[in-house]
Design brief:
The chain is an alpha/beta fold and 423 residues long. The protein is built from 14 helices and 16 strands. The strands form four sheets. A seven-stranded mixed sheet has the order 4-12-11-10-7-5-6, with helices on both faces. Strands 1-2-3-15 form a four-stranded mixed sheet. The chain has a three-stranded antiparallel sheet with strand order 13-14-16, with helices on one face. The chain is globular. It binds pyridoxal-5'-phosphate. It is found in: Cytoplasm.
Amino acid sequence: MNLSERDLLYNWHPYTQHKTAQFHPAIVRGKDSLLWDENGNEFIDAIASWWVNPFGHSNQVIADAIYKQLTTLEHVLFGGFTHDKAVLLSEKLMEILPSNQKKIFYSDNGSTAVEVAIKGCLQYFYNKDKKRTKIIAFEDAFHGDTFGAMAASGISLYTEAFKSSLLEVVRVPIPTQGNEQKAIEILENLVKTDDYAAFIFEPLVLGAAGMVMYKPEILEKMITICKQNNVFTIADEVMTGFGKTGKTFASDYLHIKPDVMCLSKALTGGTIPMAITTFCQEIYDGFYDDDIDKALFHGHTFTANPTGCAAALASISLLQTDEMQHNIQRVNASHLAFEEKIKNHPKVKTTRVLGTIFALEIKTKTAESYYGTMRTKLFNFFMENGIIMRPIGNIVYILPPYIITENQLQKVYQTIENALEIV
Ligand SMILES: *Cc1c(COP(=O)(O)O)cnc(C)c1O
């Protein structure tokens, strides 16, 4: 049996109906933008392995930092102790985060970063004996798969089975072009009621919804409305963080900053699972008390794992090089040129680009479901052509490692053009 066959004996994969699922290729090696399977087939990783890997696979700088840390101090508990890498990483983050972010809380993955953000906002009001127990979120949002994050998420496929056990969340339409006024009005009416602790959103781009984009000006308006009504704002930058949108954070496009930010995916350059929730001073102060009951009783065994912190420090240093910043601009320019070329294609409904993110919606006669037949046909076509992409329904997107070469990018574009002929 090969690896793919042995895999099926014991492994239960995420988001997978094993009865109808296709074969899972076994990847055995990665370098830069390329991955190789057990049969020696080569693939371009056009989605940076679920948006985690901006600097390429098997990056030497990050690998060296991890090795050094593993042989110096691989882990120490963060409850009651600290270590140099957490101190250094928090200091580094303070240099690059919006200036209102003052406190850093470490965890392990995007969902837990969201849990911490939501718990921080809910308990802030609880500590003050105020009854603000509900959350506001976008329709079609995705914030992760743990219970709090799932409650905030709006894609029913992921949450329907657990609906009766979830925190109360009220939804606002995504303020895409034409929906801005409606979204603002609904938000304004909600925040009047004193019921809400926080508004959580994916800033400027909703990833899992299909790279749905909206304008910074409208988000600034929504944040302002929340601030005027004492509702905290949480920017879930798990997908958008660390350069994806062309700036370090999507929140860098905003003049009015969110109170809380969630970071994970590209934090360690796709090496070690780690996440961060950052808070403004006001929320931290709401826990700061002589009474231990007012503390944030949340923690994970591997909180602020030193090896993860070392990987994050190396990743951020890579992101800050001129070379990487140039790569981000280059990928953006190539995306814009391809968008110009493809947007009037008869099978293309819309296209959108922000930073290193490109998305194209294919015209369909009927609504395409998330994991529908078009998606599978496209996925297989890309794999046959040596490209790893995960279309979402009828939406094809590219979110490549920033170091993808121009030739590789052109191959991805050409394959998308060819794919339009088979759907
Ligand atoms: C992926 C994602 C999450 C969840 O992160 P996990 O590490 O998969 O738990 C949360 N929010 C956004 C915006 C994401 O893209």
